[in-house]
Amino acid sequence: MALDRSEGLAETARALAAGEVTSRALVERTLARIEASQESLNAFRIVRAEAALAEADAADRQLASPGARRPLLGVPVAVKDDMDVAGEPTAFGCCGEFPPVAEDGEAVRRLRAAGAVIIGKTNTCEFGQWPFTEGPAFGATRNPWSTEHTPGGSSGGSAAAVAAGLVPAALGSDGAGSVRIPAAWTHLVGIKPQRGRVSTWPRGESFQGITVNGTLARTVADAALLLDAASGNHAQDPHQPPHLDMSGAVGRDPGRLRIALSLKPPFTAVPARLLPEVRTRVVELAERLAALGHFVEEADPPYGQIGLTFVPRATAGIAERVGEAPFPALLDRRTRDAARLGRLLGGAPLRAARRAESALHRRIGSFFTSYDVVLAPTTAAPPPRIGALLELSGFATDRAMIAACPYAWPWNVLGWPGVNVPAGFTPDGLPVGAQLLGPANSEPLLVQVAAQLEAELRWAEKWPSPPVTAHSAAA
């Protein structure tokens, strides 16, 4: 048996455990797909061909011997290029030759412990700042649904790789929607978990705690399975939420829920408007949830001026990264400008922003005494064209980002979980998404609702057409 690109993470793991396919065959096939698609999609910064084949051979030896099976033994997966993989550089979207790191980051270590083969590291924009995946370090990563458009960012390489069927699932990171936005724009499930659920070690906090690691997959079950495999903490992690069984939540009846449909953008410094072609798709999801028996009504969380707490944390995080960069002169001018602002805000404003989080938890948490889940657009617009934001000034970039993506970032300030689900397509055939949002440690409930929608909408059956990697099918 040779699995095709439509087989997901769970099915691939099952076929390997049953002896229906070898890990080497899967990895060889994956490498051929990546090579065939790299010119058109450019999803990967690093492809670990030799190392991945060696890991596959080791997995096959374990699969051939009796004993307990690790959940992802022999399955090829990808990780974003902000995550340390031993023996590989971590350039995080930046120009220059970076030295290889000595050790896996904690999330990668846990994937390996689950038996996964790390096939490569996916492209991301510089320090993950923007909702597009382009830059002079690697060019432009393109959307499998329309190669004239971005897959989003900053986990755009991971999203493109999964959407095109190069890998069954991948890790990304989310600091202002960077898992959920590319998931929305490539027709994927993207889980942004509770802060600390997936370790960001060797950083105890990433970008002052607003950035977390999450998963991208075509189905809720696959996104949950990868999340279970990657979850857990380094002993020195400052945030260590309780263990949760994400896979066990898939298919479990959530009961009749109170769902708030929130269409109003949170506080933004410049105008943002939900475009009608996105609004229509999100409202249709709300209607589907109501038809499933949930109580749905329009209501907006009491965000207040939450944006004032986001900017100091985001820019101070950029300043930290720029301070560590080996080639600061090669950085985008917008990165350097953001770092200067971050250094200005890194004292009292940053401390005030961090202190404000507990008050925000209380105020917005009170909303969840009336509602169980929030349904909101993931973005206000469909994916922009390649190059549309690349050469803008810093201020123009901020305006364009806020106009397209005003909905995702508040949950990064709060550190709470959110799940993007595919919401359908615009009349032009571009994917858009909606996010299910909940309070602390609500991932199982969000996964239950997402799986309930998936059972109705069967979104995983839709693929980019024509398939980007069709010419590699014989590989």
Any low-confidence stretches, pLDDT <50, length ≥5?
Answer: 467-475
Major sheet: order of its strands?
6-8-7-12-13-11-9-10
Helix and strand element order: HHEHEHEEEHEHEEHHEHEHHHEHHEEH
Shape: globular
Protein name: Amidase
Pfam families: Amidase
Family: Belongs to the amidase family.
Enzyme class: hydrolase
What does this structure look like?
Belongs to the amidase family. The protein is an alpha+beta fold and 475 residues long. Strands 6-8-7-12-13-11-9-10 form an eight-stranded mixed sheet. A three-stranded mixed sheet has the order 1-3-2. A two-stranded antiparallel ribbon has the order 4-5. Strand 4 and strand 5 form a beta hairpin. Helix 2 runs antiparallel to helix 3, helix 10 packs across helix 11 and helix 10 crosses helix 12. The longest helix has 19 residues. The protein is globular and about 55 Å long. The protein starts with 8 loop residues before the first helix and ends in an 18-residue tail after the last helix.
Concise synopsis of the structure shown:
The protein contains 15 helices and 13 strands. The protein is α+β, with helices and mostly antiparallel strands and 475 residues long.
Question: Layout of helices and strands, plus pairs?
Answer:
Elements: H1 9-17, H2 23-38, E1 44-47, H3 49-64, E2 76-80, H4 106-113, E3 117-122, E4 134-135, E5 139-140, H5 156-163, E6 169-174, H6 180-186, E7 189-192, E8 212-217, H7 220-230, H8 246-249, E9 258-261, H9 276-291, E10 295-298, H10 307-324, H11 333-345, H12 348-366, E11 373-377, H13 394-404, H14 410-414, E12 418-425, E13 431-437, H15 443-457
Parallel strand pairs: 2-3, 9-10, 9-11
Antiparallel strand pairs: 1-3, 4-5, 6-8, 7-8, 7-12, 11-13, 12-13
Helix pairs in contact: 2-3, 10-11, 10-12
Protein name: Amidase
EC number: 3.5.1.4
Enzyme class: hydrolase
